[in-house]
Write a structure and sequence with these properties.
Two copies of one chain form a homodimer.
Chain A (H helix, E strand, L loop, with lengths): L21 H8 L3 H8 L9 H14 L5 H8 L4 E6 L5 H14 L5 E6 L4 H13 L4 E4 L7 H8 L5 E4 L10 E4 L1 H15 L3 E6 L5 H16 L3 E6 L7 H13 L7 E4 L2 H13 L9 E6 L12 E4 L2 H18 L7 E3 L2 E3 L12
Parallel strand pairs in A: 1-2, 1-3, 3-4, 4-5, 5-11, 6-7, 6-8, 8-9, 9-10
Antiparallel strand pairs in A: 10-12
Helix pairs in contact in A: 1-2, 1-3, 5-12, 8-9, 10-11
Chain A binds a DNA duplex (30 and 30 nucleotides) through helix 2 and helix 4.
DNA sequence: TACGGCACCGCAAACGTTTGCGCCAGTCGG
DNA sequence: CCGACTGGCGCAAACGTTTGCGGTGCCGTA
């Protein structure tokens, strides 16, 4: 029998935030609210008679019922949120990767909680605590630096899945989805060698970013194996700024040695900064030197000169990471194995044969 | 007296997710858990004796207690989350704005829930429902199109604060923080006029984006007031792609009329696309025509030619929006007034005097 | 008729916090 | 010595879901 009396409404003023709860629907449908809960959850819907089920569903729809994910999260211990920690939101590399993640998580009913650490390790710690207190179901970290090992181990101990993306930390027991940066460095070296360069330079990124170490390793090994000469310049500042690239280029130009004919910069912006500085000194690219960038930033093909670069499948990496995370959370499988995605060389006009070849 | 017995631990296996609750702390500190709750909340901490307060705080810290924001959210009805709806995460404009928002929300203890609609109105609706069911405290929408009016009004009716950023919809009763796009269009026109251009063209963005209408209005009014000639080309495709700009430029070149000497593109990428197409036909910029872009994308100064553009204070707009939102949520004030931030003209080398002046 | 089995649904206890209320032991004024 | 008052704290009811358990009919079989 329908319980009458206590008709909903009447207490709230028009502007009031009015949320429809299970109980409201239950009253309207003449059932207990637990029945409503069951009728609306696909997993339990068959526990309720098909007639009442339809009725309840209709009433719920009519009243605009929306499950309160906060209450559900508290009860179930699963919030359907995934924290995504990034080093810098405005970095185009990061943004593309995020789009990949976001587009994959959304249809699975998972909400990415994107937090920006501004590449500050202290902020990483703070932010992770904050995220854990929000009971995220899992964490994707795309901003790991070598020094972050302890922090990462700490959240691993919380028992929730953690996946590293883009950046990893050697020796950590966490699945990592990265670009194959050794291959990236190798491709750059092979390209310069194939063009005939025998004296090369490397403008390295920060030493606490593992992918930079990998790029360096791939590059230097290949150069050494070919018996060519290499000079290495190390950046101490932030990752991948034009200023940093210009700074290193100035060092190179100021040294007594002859300018190397081929240069590998660890980031496109570093390459562009280097080119600018060289031009100030009357050197032109690729006439006087060749340079290979890294990351293949958007619109870099419209720069002057269009930059030869190592292209990274960023959005795909994001999708892959999100896919694995969805799988991990839905089937409760064991942590997946790490994977590396291969970068590709994109030849444009910032590289050519060394001058003495012409 | 300390209750002994039932020492925590012993039941959980090492890998188990082990969360410390108020009750755990209470047991360890020998008080009731409501006292712990009060002692740890700055607003209620003075309700508990300073001695016990210190003790409880120490115990909580030692045990690594972290308030469960999910439970707190359920009880208080405030989740300390702000939804931020964007049209495309990978758009550099959006990314910078997001950084501004994110950096401002974080110290206030608010968590941005960033969702990407891929500029799809249907997805906007879906996603907003999802966000509301997560009981977000407020919403910032940066992707509003003219057709989104009804959707926006619907969430306004839910009673939570909504602020529009970057894009607005005319006639809607919601605070909007935007760039002054009329001024932006005006600046572009004034610049071209000052250089001596008398025949100009406008490459317009999509008609359902209000800021494009504003840019057009500012530009056309200024051109008309100076008695110069203008031809308008309308883009029907997505916002601001190079292809779109190239497409419109082709139309312009294919028309019987003489090529206008000055062009205003509604987006930097459109401008770049237009330049590429013109170059294919043997026309050079700024020799044969001048072009002004919009948005001042990162690294656009390194393009060829370095693009004259209208620069928008994106990150500042993000900060401002977030600031207002924080204020709104903490003090419960009435909705703020809309504001417009002024763009600036950045002159580079894609504009110069028209050919006949030389 | 008795009884087991089953389908359906209600009951109520959680999940971890917050918070109004009220108890208790002091203290103080009369 | 008594009553009022107060600071400090415990009690328990929420917040909206989920879910194990058990109750109520109803059917079929012995």
């Amino acid at each position: 029998m329908l319980r009458s009396g206590g008709v909903a409404g009447g207490r709230e003023r028009p502007g009031e935030r009015t949320i429809v709860t299970l109980e409201d629907v239950a009253r309207a449908a003449g059932v207990h609210y637990s029945t409503v809960s069951r009728a609306l959850d696909p997993d339990t819907a068959r526990q309720v008679n098909v007639m009442t089920r339809k009725r309840v569903q209709a009433v719920a729809k009519r009243m605009g019922y929306q499950k309160d994910m906060v209450a559900s999260g508290l009860k179930r211990g699963r919030t359907h949120t995934v924290a995504v920690v990034v080093g810098d939101l405005a970095n185009p590399n990061v943004a593309l990767m995020l789009r990949g993640i976001s587009n994959r998580l959304e249809p699975a009913g998972l909400m990415p909680l994107i937090v920006d650490t501004q590449n500050d390790p202290a902020r990483l710690e703070r932010v992770l605590d904050h995220l854990l207190s929000r009971r995220v179901d899992a964490v994707i970290v795309t901003a790991a630096r070598l020094s972050d090992g302890p922090t990462l181990r700490r959240i691993r101990r919380r028992g929730i899945p953690v996946i590293l993306a883009v950046q990893t930390v050697p020796g950590i027991r966490l699945p990592a989805f990265t670009h194959d940066d050794i291959l990236g460095g190798t491709l750059a070296a092979q390209h310069l060698l194939a063009l005939g360069h025998r004296r090369v330079a490397q403008l390295r990124g920060p030493a606490d970013i593992y992918s930079c170490l990998q790029r360096a390793q791939g590059f230097s090994q290949t150069i050494a194996a070919a018996g060519a000469m290499e000079v290495v310049l190390r950046s101490s500042g932030p990752m991948g700024t034009a200023e940093e690239g210009g700074h290193l280029m100035r060092q190179l130009l100021d040294s007594k040695r002859a300018l190397p004919t081929g240069i590998f910069a660890h980031h496109d912006l570093m390459a562009l900064g280097a080119i600018s500085v060289a031009e100030e000194r009357g050197l032109a690219c690729p006439r006087d030197f060749s340079i290979v960038g890294y990351a293949d930033l958007p619109n870099v093909e419209r720069m002057v000169p269009p930059l030869t670069s190592i292209s990274l499948p960023r959005e795909e990496l994001g999708r892959l990471t999100a896919d694995v995370m969805v799988e991990l959370l839905s089937s409760g499988a064991r942590p997946p194995a790490s994977r590396k995605l291969a970068p590709t060389l994109v030849v444009r006009q910032s590289t050519g044969p060394p001058r003495d070849f012409r």
